Structures are given as structure tokens and as C-alpha cells.
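Pilot study result, target chain (388 residues):
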Amino acid sequence: MSATPQPAPSVQKLILIVDDTPVNIGVISGALKDSYKTKVATNGEKALALASAEEKPDLILLDIMMPGMDGYEVCSRLKADPATSEIPVIFLTGQTSAEDETRGFEVGAVDYVHKPFSPAVVNARVRSHILLREARAQLAAQLLALNNELEMARQIQLSILPHSIPKLPGLEIAARFLPMTSVAGDFYDFIQIDGKHIGILIADVSGHGLPSALIASMLQVSLTGQAGHASEPSKVLAGLNRALCGKFTDNFVTAAYVFVDLEKSLMRYAGAGHPPVLQWRNSTGKTAKVLENGLVLGMFGEAIYEALEFPLEPGDRYVLYTDGVPEAANPSEEQFGVERFMRFIENNKHLGADQFVQTFLTELSRWSGQTAEQGQQDDITLLVVDFK
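Predicted structure:
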């Protein structure tokens, strides 16, 4: 039988005491000797050297009034050096004015111990700040692990989105996917039947972050199962709904699906609680809303969806998007809105699909006062389909 493993002995923390008065050094060393290792520096230069040594102190007790370099200067230099900036510094001082203490905090100290020293107070302050440093280090490690996991999730989510935009003669498609956080609940994909027929899905999972992203990944698998009836939007949405129902309780999915038939120059469309498709007609120069919405996906197993069918004319443009577009708010909390979006489409009809998408997102950033890098208010997905 193997012996029971014994826990590794705890390593004593190292405290650097910086003081030019032997009596003070003796009092502090005596207070700490049973619980900590200590090193002593009697001036600022030696303190900086010991703080930068291979075995760095876990905490520094630093006298303010010393000949040559005073404690404020030593602390400032410690905080300016990345190698020592995270070491907590507690000032030792007989000065008790608010101005003196404020100056100490401004240069980076975390606390004060006033003279004459109480061994119990010295021990308590040291122990508190050692524990705080350990807690911060643990939180930093957990945050790093979480960020690494989110980055992995982001890479996985990006891998389920289309790696390229389908190219069909007579059709130009442009797409952009801008998540609010590392991962998002927006999703889009294509079912390309052949060079004349293609299905396009855009969807938005309620909520944000990892739970929504996981549901969005389910859509990719579920959409693959709808390829057999890709030409029938109502059946595609009904199939997606059945696949999602019962898989989650706190979310729902809105979606719009269009099927483009270039052979017959027509489009079929159905929606599930999603914002309307915007249709710009070359023949009229006007933009209209196209809306045929059934119930949102994932909540009602027997939901039925209806489809619209309309002809495609050369020069027509269709825009699909998630609600992050019309709900983008400016600093006055006014939303961008669908009507403003429609006017933008009409005023920029001369732009190709890809240039239109980029120009519009630039305008949306200007409107909201926020770029994607600064943090947007919601996930944004935008698809533009031009019929040549």
C-alpha cells in the first residue's frame, strides 16, 4: 500500500525591511521572525538592489525619512520598474498628516504603519497585504485562464461561420460579423445547391456571450440538416425550430431565411421573429420592408412558418441584418432605426455590395460614437445580396 501523500510545506514569504535606524529594524524583525523571512536594507540604493534580486520580496516595509534617497523616491522607482511594480509597499513613518499620507499613496504605497511600532499592528498589516497580493495573483491567473478559454471559443465560433462568400454568376453577396464580446449569438450561413440556387440564413440568439454562442453553434449543425428542402424557407425554419426546441430554456432565436433562384429570377423568404428584410428596387429607386414573421425559434415545437415569393430584377438589392443595427444608439440614446437605414440604402445605391457594407458600418460607428474595438452595444451581422 502506498503512503498517503503529504502536502508540500508552505514557503515563507520574504519581507524586505528598509530603515536606517537599528532600533526600528530590530523591532520589526522581531515582530516578523516567526512567520516570515526578512532581509534588511539601510538605504534606498540597497533597497532597490534587493528588490530587483532574483529572489524578490513579497512585500516591502519602507521608511520615508532616510538620508540620500527618501522613501517616496524609492517607492516611485519601484513602481516605475515592471520587475518590481507589483510588490506592495507599506510606508514606515512618524508623520501622520493627511498631506503626507496622500503623497505616499500617490507614489504607490498600499498602507502606512506609524511609529512607534506595535508588533501586533505590523504583523496584521503585513499579513493583510500578503493575502491581498495572493488574492490578486489568483484572480489574475483565473482571468488569464478565462480569457484563454474565451479566445478558444472565439476561434471555434469563427470556424463554424462561412470561410468564404459563395460566388454565383449574376449575384454579389457581402457579409460582416461583428461580435460585441469575444463570442456572440449572431450567426449566418449558406446552403449552396448549385451555381443558380442558394439559401441564406441569418439568425440572432437572445442574450450575449458564451451561452448564446453555444446555441448559435447548434444552428450550424441544424441548418445542414435542412439542405433537402433548402428551396422552401417555411420548411427550413420549421426544421430549425424542431431541432432547437427543448435544448435550452432561457433563450430564443430570431432568424430570416431567403432562397435565391437565379434560374427563375425569384426569391423566397420567411422569418421567425426577425427584423424585416430591406428591399431596394432598381426600377423604383425606393427601399421597402419585406416581412413575413412566424414565432421565434426554439420555444414552440409546433410553430408554422409562411413564405413570401417575389421576382428578382436586375439591380435589386436585399439587406439582411440582426437587431444590433437598428438598435445602435448614439450618445443621446437615440436609436439608428430601420427608417434611417432605409434612407442610407437609397443614398448609397451606387456602391457595390462589399463597399456598401463597409461604408455603412463606418457610418454606424460614427452614429454610435463607438468602434468595434472600443466595444459596441450589441452583436452586429450584416448581409447584402445584389442581383445583377
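One observation from the pilot: The chain is about 35% helix and 25% strand. A full batch analysis is planned for the follow-on phase.
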